[in-house]
Amino acid sequence: MKRKLAKRQVDPELLEQVLDGLQQTGLQSDERFTESFIESRVRKGQGPVRIRSELRERGIDAALIERYLEIYEDEWRALLEDVHDAKYGAVRVRETKELAKRARFLEYRGFPGELIRQFLLD
What we know:
It contains eight helices and no strands. The protein is an all-alpha fold. It has a domain of 47 residues: Arc Repressor Mutant, subunit A, CATH 1.10.10. Helix 3 crosses helix 5 and helix 7 runs antiparallel to helix 8.
């Protein structure tokens, strides 16, 4: 929020005061934002790598990101399968070219390489 408002040439001192006030009253919370952001991205079928990257770009603390991503730790495989099957159907292939294409798609969606390999090569 600070970076966004700073681009609008707002007085830095005033900006700090306002943001501090919002945090103290509970109207601005990195925790609530992180939780909500991750939940919305999971609903869109995005994996932890992409979500982590987007949150870091927004200036969220790495420890906070990891704490909320842990909640979904047991769900990444199922989400990866759902995303794959929505795009390609439940049909599994063995051709190298097609496997590479699917792996790139899943990687773009933000799933870790090891999880993609396990899924595609099972």
